[in-house]
Amino acid sequence: MIARSLRAVLDSSAELAHTTTHVRRLMALQRTFAAVAPDYLTSASRVANYYSGRIIIHADNGAVAAKLRHLVPRLYSEFVKNCAEVTEVRIRVQAPSHSGTRKSATRRILADGTRASLSELAESLPDEAALRRAIRKLLERN
To answer: Are 54 and 118 part of one and the same domain?
Structure first.
């Protein structure tokens, strides 16, 4: 049979044995990471590598990295319990690549009730208030 699954090819190749083992370990670490960290953090971060007992987690930005650093003790204990010999968990900021293309900002349209509430709020504020100017600017752009 010519068509074989990728897993069968990887399992049958002695040359790829080390890579296959490494990939499986990373997958297991990612599953543990996803089970421990909240969804809003796992959607903006990922297990990037494992070597010499060090687990490297890449965060999309500094805010996500800061929150993940608070979870390091818990992550460490779960990684040790479930997956691997771990000596260190490192969090690094590494923005995801977007293949050289930049997403355009999604413009959201305010609902009529929201527009009316914001207009009413702006009118209740003094003319010189920065918040009033900001609300008006938001309403003009929307």
So the answer is: no
